[in-house]
Amino acid sequence: MAGAVAKLPSLVNSAIANAKPKFAIFLKYAKVELAPPKPSEISQIKAGIAKLLSSARTGAWKQQTVKQATLNTLVGAEVLFWFYVGECIGKRHIVGYNV
Amino acid sequence: MADLPYGPPVRVSPLIRFGRWSFLTAGILYGAFHQNRLSKREVKIREVEAKEKAIRDEKIKREKAIAAAAELKNLEEMVNKKD
Fold first, then answer.
1. Which residues of B touch A48 (CB under 8 A)?
2. Are A85 and B24 in contact (CB under 8 A)?
3. Residues 6+ apart with CB under 8 A from A89
4. Are A83 and B26 in contact (CB under 8 A)?
5. What's the rounded Cα separation, in Å, for the pair A74 and A72?
6. What global pTM score does this model have?
7. How many angstroms separate the CA atoms of A22 and B16, rounded?
8. Contact A67/B36 with Cβ under 8 angstroms?
9. TM segments (chain B) (predicted)?
10. What is the pLDDT of residues A36-82, one digit of tens each?
11. Of A46, A95, B30, B49, which is least surrounded by CB within 10 A?
């Protein structure tokens, strides 16, 4: 037990040393893939919303392959889950409301 | 970008990124708003509970006093009967 406790700092240090380059790679991807939309992209966003609406109106969304539909559903779910991440940040508690 | 092991980053559609960020901010605002509303409601409930507790404590005290008096009376009667 005492030996395990003595090893703990070196374990933590090696874990941090291992994680650092990986985190740097993550940051490089995140800066592109998770960046907030730029003002110059507003026209593309508008076009995307219009496309969504027109596909909902014309029923074009029913003419997808199963693969496309699955991917779209997963992407939609991911986007929706950001709302719950935001809710957890806003209520400053992870499970339930701390009143 | 040459040092990226998984190829160049994917160009995520601006609509998806816009959706993520707007849902995130909407969630933060909703969470804060709902937290505020619920805690206000809870404060009111606590006040009512505190008032009710005072009344209940008083009632329990009176009932206990009555029960103790009755017990004492019973005991006295029993003792007096034996004599």
1. 13-15, 18
2. yes
3. B27, B28, B31
4. yes
5. 5
6. 0.73
7. 25
8. no
9. 15-33
10. 888 998 999 999 999 999 999 998 888 999 999 999 999 999 999 99
11. A95
Say if residues A87 and B28 touch (Cβ distance below 8 Å). yes
Q: ipTM, 2 decimals?
A: 0.79
DSSP H helices, chain A, are 2-33, 42-58, 66-91
Q: Which two tokens stand for residue B69?
A: 């008096």
Q: Does A48 touch chain B (CB under 8 A)?
A: yes
User: Looking at the predicted structure, is the pLDDT value of residue A31 above 60?
Assistant: yes
Inter-axis angle of helices B14-82 and A66-91, nearest 10: 50
Query: Cβ–Cβ of B9/A32 closer than 8 Å?
Result: yes
Instruction: Report chain A's mean pLDDT, rounded to a whole number.
Output: 90
B6 DSSP 8-state letter: T
The Cα–Cα gap between B24 and B13 comes to 17
Q: Which helix (H) or strand (E) holds B16?
A: helix B14-82
Chain B contact present for A87, CB below 8 A: yes
Q: How far is CA A3 from CA A8, A10, A11, B80, in A?
A: 9, 12, 12, 75
With 60 as the cut, is the pLDDT of residue A22 above it?
yes
Closest C-alpha among A42, A14, A34 to residue A79: A34
